[in-house]
Amino acid sequence: MPSETLWEIAKAEVEKRSSNGSESDGVEIGEKSVFFIGSKNGGKTTIILRCLDRDEPPKPTLALEYTYGRKAKGHNIPKDIAHFWELGGGTSLLDLISVPITSDTLRTFSIVLVLDLSKPNDLWPTMENLLQATKSHVNKVIMKLGKKNSKASSEMRQKIWSNMQKDHPDREIIDPFPIPLVIIGSKYDIFQDFDSEKRKVICKTLRFVAHYYGASLMFTSKSEALLLKIRGVINQLAFGIDKSKSICVDQNKPLFITAGLDSLNQIGSPPVPDNDIGKLHARSPMELWKKVYERLFPPKNTNTLKDIKDPARDPQYAESEVDEMRIQKDQLQISTLTNLENTKIDAWCLSR
């Protein structure tokens, strides 16, 4: 049988790529995006720097920050590119979630939610607000994408079930997040000294939330061994490296549960007496777990959970000359608006 010509090989490669949808739907090969959201001062920047092998001290994140990394696939092969986005300010800048997540980037996008385990009273509100805002925006983008490319939109909706086996007993109960999601509990070194009952409630609650959303869950700290495991998970999202199949569900150890490997049977029921469950009046499993969690860890005053909305007014970013010019600009705008209103009033009076 005659060997294939160079033209035949090239033609076969193009047809192969087209059948995979990599060219027909506009997805750029070897480019992925990872969006870090989560608790303020929760360690997001530290994790990103560790994944990129950058030996530099983390700096406070102002609003929305971007960096990237490259990874070689082989000799004379273009490097894969990973785009890393980080949302600062905890839950105070939810509007910025829409900036990096667009119909052009969505199909190669992943979310990493970093939660500060040392602040359990802030954990649920932070998690709930960020996931709801992100999910709402992603669903809007998927709908927009569906109007332009129904095939791509349909593939995305099917892909979210890829981590869950078809015969998994919880398939009819869970509601997978629309794009890949990893939940990381940071500052485990502080968390491990908590009372055992508190650790149990936090671990079981996060396991339920992660399983419900079809997400991976893992704990980390400054420990080099834990950071290496987290790095492996992030590299899987960013560069498509093989996913780890290891699992640890022992609440006395750092949790490490890959998406699809947990189950409601293993997690168990919410840690509350059976005769109290009916008194909670929950309308859904998620609401039930929330009520049980907040009985032990009531959220702080909502006003204290909201950080400064406008980073330009945050004292830690004060710049005397810039701030003075900003004040002058604000005063000028107020003066202009006042004059405009006075002009309208005068005009109205003359017309009477």
Automatic annotation (TrEMBL):
UniProtKB keywords: Cell projection, Cilium, Cilium biogenesis/degradation, Cytoplasm, Cytoskeleton, Developmental protein, Dynein, Microtubule, Motor protein
Subcellular compartments: Cytoplasm, Cytoskeleton, Cilium axoneme; Cytoplasm, Cytoskeleton, Cilium basal body; Cytoplasm, Cytoskeleton, Microtubule organizing center, Centrosome
Record flagged with keyword ATP-binding: no
InterPro entries: DYNC2LI1, Dynein_light_int_chain, P-loop_NTPase
GO MF, any single term: dynein heavy chain binding
Pfam families in UniProt: DLIC
SUPFAM superfamilies: P-loop containing nucleoside triphosphate hydrolases
Biological process per Gene Ontology, one example term: intraciliary transport involved in cilium assembly
Domain of life: Eukaryota
Gene Ontology cellular component annotations, sorted alphabetically: apical part of cell; axoneme; centrosome; ciliary basal body; ciliary transition zone; cytoplasmic dynein complex; cytosol; microtubule
Protein family per UniProt: Belongs to the dynein light intermediate chain family.
Protein name, entry field: Cytoplasmic dynein 2 light intermediate chain 1
